[in-house]
Design goal:
CATH architecture: 3-Layer(aba) Sandwich
Order of helices and strands: HEEEHEHEHEHEEH
Number of helices: 6
Largest sheet: 8 strands, mixed
Radius of gyration: 17 Å
Strand order of the largest sheet: 1-8-7-4-5-6-2-3
Helix content: 40-55%
Number of strands: 8
Mean pLDDT: 87
Shape: globular
Length: about 170
Amino acid sequence: MKINKISKQLALCLFVLIPTCIICAQNKVMFDADLKDIQGNSVSLKKEIQEKDKFYVLSFWATWCAPCLNELDSINDVYQDWKKELNVEVVAISTDDSRTISRVKPLINGKGWDFTVFLDTNNDLKRKLGFQSVPYLVIVKNGEIVYTQNGYTPNSEVLLLKRMKKL
């Protein structure tokens, strides 16, 4: 009886994990989106992330999301080291809506993050990418999504650097 239960759990894990791994391994073309910068100017994401052989780490976050802020703080702490080792740029994309968007600029100024920050207030890009919750991280290289990560775990920025070096 115990072996049957373990077999069912293993089968369930494989059913969930194998398709996820296959999806993560496939490169997908990055979607374009019209976003705003923190001054309110319209920007085309595709134009902003087009440099050949450069990694773009797109970190989707919100002001009310503690794990998002922890992730961005951690990345900010190692960002200069990343830049020494790789051609990389971090772009923080706020998913705050009209109720909380006014908190973005003061929070960025207070944190002193060294990132480009865009606003996806209508969640158009979020919908195109098909994720539900933040933090959500996308690594783009040469116009293709090469890695995605949902959620934040402390010290994951070390693993992200290793992953980018392998790509």
